[in-house]
Amino acid sequence: MNKTKRAIFDSAIKVFSNSGYNGATMDIIAADAGVAKGTLYYHFKSKEEIFNFIIEQGMAAIKEKIESIAVKQEDILSKIKVLCRVQLGFVYESRDFFKVVMSQLWGQESRQLELRESIKKYINYMKSYLEEAMKQGVVKKGDSYLMAYTLFGTICSATVYELINEDKTDIEELIENLLGNILSGIQERNEN
After folding, report:
1. Which of 55, 101, 62 is CA-nearest to residue 82?
2. Where are its TM segments located (predicted)?
3. Are residues 75 and 26 in the same domain?
4. How many domains would you assign to the chain?
């Protein structure tokens, strides 16, 4: 991504997060990015095109970061832990992006439908890790698609927890607790 597109990307996330999709305008995004309106229109024809661009780039960044760390792990459980860590960490570091995603997840407008498709692709990506873990006997066999959605939803819920309780949360402790709950469940087990 070139410098101008990067500035537009960062500004669009901030503007969509602060003003909502409907409150954001091309003028505000251009001004925040420090580019002329014509420059903005040179790169993007519409606000919706900018929105779709930030979603595409944001989701790609999560996958790239996961892959760059997971490739160094030897076992699939460690790779799943990396996936959880990176997704939660990314959302923690990119709160505005997460806020934009969550605010536009529902609805029937084309950007919302495209966003859901992006999330679905990411869920399928998560599913591939879980299926590998099932093959290796590390994760119990079951509906890997539902498990991937559950994992994604759990991480998103933990993010909401962190956002609400940010003054009380140690992010590393949150990640460890989340991974423990995901991998071991929340049910108390009697060792009789």
Report:
1. 62
2. none
3. no
4. 2
